Amino acid sequence: MMRLNEFCGLDIKLDTEKTRLTFGQGLNYSEPGVRSLDQMKEVLLDKNISEPKELYYMYRDVYRIADKALLEKNKLRYDVTLIKPDALGREFMKTAGHYHPQSFGELYEVVYGHCYCLLQKPAKEEYRNIEEVVICEAKAGQKIVIPPGFGHILINPGPDLLITSNWVSSVFSSEYQLYKEAQGAAYFMVKSSTKEPGLIPNTYFKQLAKIKSVKPNPRIEKFGLLENEPIYPIINENAEKLSFLNHPLDFDYSEVFI
Ligand SMILES: [Fe+2]
Fold it and tell me: Ligand 1 center to residue 98 CA distance, Å?
């Protein structure tokens, strides 16, 4: 068992053998949604693989029961995701990918491990033209703000399990269809012989922007977000800081990456 309290701000432990979370008293949680290989085949570069059978686990709507009214009032949801380190054929382990409707963004935190977040912004009139591609590499304690209009996947390059948490508006559902239609994100991240992972463009897209490599800004002044400060307690300390999640177009995102 590994305690995650100081990393995520909630009394949560990781059962390292079962790859599952256990929740302390006073926390609301439910069984995780399990993303299986069958559900993910469409978005993989290598569609003929047979292992691993399970890829990642989504614990949606985790909160301190005492905070229930606060989350409802602020129209927010907090989730925790465990992403296994196994390879998917040539590709690194990843999530299915989705867009948010309208302009909703998201706030991610890496709780444990190391990840790449691949963000892509399609042209308004043609979603097969990707105008911006951003790869953000992040490690435990760092935060990734998803700006309006960007679809996103998380990639676990391993060798450790990746645990992320996120705050997101509770008023919408994510849209997975465009990633399924495209059979993946703008690029597939694959193992390479160099230190840097390889990136294979997805031929579904007619136009693909060049990849911009970024890091999370450790101090996002306009959002009042600091590296190594867990994101759950923001709801208790200053929920206003999360208002960008329900009013995404009122904010300036130019500082979220460096
Ligand atoms: Fe999202």
Answer: 6
Ligand 1 center from residue 153 Cα (angstroms): 8
What CATH number is attached to the domain comprising 46? 2.60.120.10
Give the model confidence (pLDDT) of 47-89 as tens digits: 999 999 999 999 999 999 999 999 999 999 999 999 999 999 9
* Domain assignment present for 253: no
- Residue 104 CA, ligand 1 centroid: distance in Å: 9
Domain range for 172 is 2-245
Q: How far is the CA of 121 from the centre of ligand 1 (A)?
A: 13
* Sequence-distant (≥ 6) Cβ neighbours of residue 146 within 8 angstroms: 100, 105, 106, 107, 108, 117, 119, 152
Which pLDDT tens digit goes with each residue over 1-51?
999 999 999 999 999 999 999 999 999 999 999 999 999 999 999 999 999
For residue 195, pLDDT beyond 90: no
Closest of 17, 18, 25, 24 to residue 3, by C-alpha: 24
Q: How remote is the CA of residue 106 from the centroid of ligand 1, in Å?
A: 6
pLDDT of residue 177: 97
* Inside any domain, residue 255: no
Establish if 256 belongs to a structural domain. no
Distance 218 CA to ligand 1 centre (A): 21
Could you give the dihedral angle defined by the CA atoms of residues 75, 66, 229 and 98, in that order, rounded to the nearest 10 degrees? Answer: -40
Q: Is residue 251 part of a domain?
A: no
